Amino acid sequence: MNRHSFFVCESLQRVMQNASPALACTLLLCGLLMSATGCGKTPAASFRPNMVEAAKQRLTPDQEAQVATILEAMFGTPDDPVALPETGLDVSKLRLAAGPVHSDIVGRKNGLFREHCSHCHGVTGDGMGPTAAFLNPYPRDYRPGWFKFKSTERADKPTHADLVTILNNGINGTSMPSFALLGEAKVDALVEYVKYLSMRGEAELSLMRYYFELDDEDEGKLPETREFLVEEILLPVAERWQEAEDAIIDVPEMPEVDLQESIALGKELFYGNKANCVKCHGVTGLGDGQANDYDDWNKVVKQWSDEVLSAHDASTSEMSREEKAEHRAWLARSDKALAGDALDPRTIQPRNLRQAIYRGGRRPLDLYYRIHAGINGAPMPAAAGTLTPDEIWHIVNYVRSLPYEYDGELGADRSMVARDRL
Amino acid sequence: MRNRLAGLFWSLVFLAVPVLGVAVFAVAPSIDVWLPKDVSAHGKDIDSLFYFILALTGIVFIATEMLLFWFVWKYDEAARGDQKATYIQGSHTLEVIWTIIPAVLLLFLAIYQMNAWADMKMRRPVMKPTVEVVARQFEWRLRYPGPDGDLGTPDDLFLVNDLHVPVDEDILVQLKSMDVLHSFFLPNLRVKQDAVPGMKIPVWFKASEVGQYDLVCAELCGWGHYKMKGRITIESREDFDAWLEAKYREQEATQAEPLQEDL
Ligand SMILES: [Cu+2]
């Protein structure tokens, strides 16, 4: 059964549950017809292996299989998630979010992730669901464990509350909508599941990279002891998620100066060498300072595809026959991974600061976090080392004034410029 | 004899159409698949137009369906034996009658509804927008003008999906779309208006009762159309102002803890 008819069956079952009896009879008839033509049992969903990383690390098929086996033991499957106590994840929440969309025995909706998230973020959380390629920016790939909008330092994980905020508010300026009306419990379950997918993705990466560190006597196989898997693979990831909860950036009060004065100071910093915001955000603040950089997710794919491309061009005359065969096989596999398991890399645009659209939230507090810690995964650097908190607040005030910057030339009646550009 | 049964069967099938059709409408209100509760000032006009047109088309529907039944029944070949059909050239009088009657009815409807249409789409209240609604795949982005009453100033309040309006006051919505066609639909307020990219469309209504109701998208706008759902809360002026202020304070937060109420 293909994906399409699977989707039709799912929706049909859902409609059936809510429809009135008369409607249900009609639909039942259609349903019977459809099951006769191939609508039957839902196939079990599976996580998709990180093929780009596997090709990059030159894993053998046996090694790929070993990674899959270990991951299934540690994290289960999309229909049946497992969370070891060390992850600190709540399995009951995961169950609400995991699996196919269905109502359980008390009529509670399950399978929230596949209902609301997976068409963009993918069942695996790799940001490659069926709709992903159409979106700009691409949906987030959770697997490297990088998150942009949070109240913690740049390299830290976000807190649970940070992710809840993102789900509630959506990310204006991207395709991520608000899920606030789902209610607290469902949003909470979804956030737990995002953390689960992210931990799983990071564990997968570290497993795949671990083969590189093996000794000869290991014979290319990772040890499968609980001690190794938990201590070496799981804990380093899980602990960083747990630590984030207490690592919220300390925000000093906004200095008590006149707002206009603060804006003027912020402007000076914006254009000055110390903060140098102008380098990327442009002299006009329109985000046109530079246009050919990549975010880290796209950079991974970009660098890898460049490498594969130059390997295609490299001379093979020095190689023995076996080496050549192996090289060709590796190239074929890398091409396949790039075509099927990665999205075409795209450049990232610095934010246009005159639109009054702030992806990570518009509160002064949010902007403070963005400038203080930078944006993980994006070229935006942390200013914490270079700027004092007061200076950061001045820039916050200046940036918040940009969409409404006064331009005397326009006359008293139209005091604001660049404001209605949605 | 077999043929006579076939004729009977088909005439009954055609008879079932008006019978079931009327039955569905008769039962619908009691199983709650009828018009949603009306909480708007102008909703009565819309609803009475709806009922009037329903009655009119209902009568025509029943009459034509009964005629169809009667013809299938009466002129069944098996029942009429060898009797040949009569050939006629057509009836000029009959054709004039069945053209003029619907034409008059349609013209009457067109004139009769004009006032309701003008109230909804042309007689805009003279005021600044209460709120700007920007539809986008797949959510409703809202912007309130803040205390100065002007959109596009630093005191604007930005929200998503959670529309609030005061009761018993004229509300003017400035409707925009960020991407594709959407439709701003408030079923309980009898308001439906397409949002068109590149246009600022004014929409107005007056709510007559406090409560929480659906705000949905009524124009297929992409795969997530079905979940492009918001909520409208109709509340007293005091509650509305308090809500605006609380939300604005949230938006202007400079510290992670919610600010203490200055009471
Ligand atoms: Cu829509």
Can you describe what's shown?
The complex is a heterodimer of chains A (422) and B (263). Chain A is mainly α and 422 residues long. Chain A has four domains: 3-37; 51-244, no CATH class; 259-293 and 348-404, Cytochrome c-like domain (Cytochrome Bc1 Complex, Chain D, domain 2, Orthogonal Bundle); 297-340. Chain A is built from 16 helices and two strands. Chain A has helices at residues 3-18, 21-36, 51-56, 61-75, 91-97, 112-116, 118-121, 160-169, 184-210, 226-244, 259-271, 278-281, 296-313, 321-340, 364-373, 389-401; strands spanning 102-103, 109-110. A two-stranded antiparallel sheet of chain A has the order 1-2. In chain A, a hairpin with a 5-residue loop joins strand 1 and strand 2. In chain A, 37% of the residues are buried. Residues 1-9, 11-21 and 408-422 of chain A have low confidence and may be disordered. Chain B is α+β, with helices and mostly antiparallel strands and 263 residues long. Chain B folds into two domains: 2-80 and 91-121, no CATH class; 131-251, Immunoglobulin-like, CATH 2.60.40. In chain B, 40% of the residues lie in helices and 22% in strands. In chain B, strands 3-2-1-5-8 form a five-stranded mixed β-sheet. Chain B has a five-stranded mixed β-sheet with strand order 4-10-9-6-7. In chain B, strand 1 (131-136) and strand 2 (139-144) form a beta hairpin. In chain B, helix 1 (2-27) packs antiparallel against helix 2. The radius of gyration of chain B is 27 Å and the shape is elongated. Classes of the chains: A mainly alpha (422), B alpha+beta (263). The interface between A and B is medium-sized, with 31 and 34 residues. Bound molecules: copper (II) ion (CU). Residues 135, 182, 217, 219, 221, 225, 228 of chain B line the site of copper (II) ion.
